[in-house]
Amino acid sequence: MKPSLDRKTKIVLEPRKQPRQQRSSKVVDRILDAALILTREQGTKAPTTLAIAQHAGLSVGSLYQYFPNKEAILLELARRWLSSFPEVIRRRIKVAPPANREEFRRELRKLRIDTSKLYLENANLMPVIEAISGNPDLRPIQNEYDDQIVALYAAWLQHANPALEDKCASRLGLVMMEVGHACKLAALKKDRRTFDLMEDDVEAMWLALVSPYLNLN
């Protein structure tokens, strides 16, 4: 992915056009769904635009009406993946605030399990995510979602303790996001048993980090 995400090729990574009609949106969804299935099966290097188009039931010409190349499709998949995290955190904010430390621990575990699922189901997209992080022109794509995620983590912590100051909640949210992401990337390179153990470690770190600030017994 590195050559394809080089700064010189940034322009051709954008979709050719944004779907404005329901029919066009469904076509884009078919392309992205097909690409996701193939990348899960084969990794990001193997599927061609022709293979993606065929899996989506389209001609390659129809695919090119929406995406200039495979790399643009992968980048759009990365955007879709990043956009799934805010809703995962919002679900935890919508439930009743925890009354004690044990209830908070259960909520934290649900959050950790839901986020882990997103990584496990999209493990083959991680090289794309890492390439975005390392490219100055593409990094703003991830920053946009990172800011949302940190703000939602902060809101979730303040949901548990409304007295928690904004700056403190944001700092804790940033640590949760960065530590969680780094550990999940490392864990995905191991076997599933090790992944699960490392996820337990992340949960323990998160709990140790935020518990002193929540005033829960």
Verbal overview:
This protein is an all-alpha fold. It has two domains: 73 residues, Orthogonal Bundle (Tetracycline Repressor, domain 2); 130 residues, Tetracycline Repressor, domain 2 (Orthogonal Bundle), CATH 1.10.357. Helices cover 70% and strands 0% of the residues. It contains ten helices and no strands. The N and C termini lie far apart (48 Å).
Low-confidence stretches: 6-11
Q: What is the number of strand segments?
A: 0
Question: What is the domain tally?
Answer: 2
CATH structural class of the largest domain: Mainly Alpha
Proportion in β-strands: under 5%
* Reported CATH architecture of the largest domain: Orthogonal Bundle
Instruction: Write down the Rg.
Output: 19 Å
Task: Give short descriptive properties of this protein.
217 residues, mainly alpha, Tetracycline Repressor, domain 2, 2 domains, 70% helix, elongated
Set out the fold topology:
Blueprint: H1 22-42, H2 49-56, H3 60-64, H4 70-83, H5 85-94, H6 101-121, H7 126-133, H8 139-160, H9 166-188, H10 192-210
